[in-house]
């Protein structure tokens, strides 16, 4: 079977590509700029833009399953073209779709529910590699500074999330399901800093910032005001459910999800 991966050059999309290749599947990767894709040589790279569905139509030919974004761009705006993309997939003979969800019920999800495709919505609560944003501060000052230090997130390793996607695309059996995909534990930022400290052998600290202190820090780092507002609002309203682990990784793949401590140990060199 040939599987199409949209968003194939992104952090999650590239991991999905690698996992599918590891399992021996033929992979077609959709990207806006094929010349800059930097994907493995045995991947069929095609150009297309999800905001312009007609450019995606050729990429769907001969495809059995699709990993589809529900939003595109750093602004995470839901794809208004969802209904047209779903219709083109149906016409091309696609049977199965996984959706990289953002937590909103957007046009892609709505169109899939009204279709006869086998669809599965997958929401990664948070990915462990997001903590790489702390690397410079840890290297320079041995400290992480963030607001809302009490928030807990059940972060998932990207490799585990990619394994869930690949299993569903290849094997099916999860049609009409929406899954929150997490790691095995809910951790605060300070918990994660302690794990990185243990992995690197360095004494690291965590400082909880007020909103105004966070604004000042992020402004000094060149963040746009809308980005600062978005992050503060998001963190101030984080629901308790994001810290509650699910069993999706084990249920779908048959393996235990990796812990943050394991991830930190493997990536310790990036923090020193």
UniProtKB/TrEMBL annotation:
Domain NAD(P)-binding: 7-169
Pfam families, A to Z: NAD_binding_10
Gene3D superfamilies referenced in this protein's UniProt entry, alphabetically: NAD(P)-binding Rossmann-like Domain
Stored InterPro entries: Ergot_Alk_Oxidoreductase (IPR051604), NAD(P)-bd_dom (IPR016040), NAD(P)-bd_dom_sf (IPR036291)
Top-rank taxon: Bacteria
PANTHER family in the record: PRESTALK A DIFFERENTIATION PROTEIN A (PTHR43162:SF1), PTHR43162
UniProt-recorded name of the protein: NAD(P)H-binding protein
Native source species: Allokutzneria multivorans
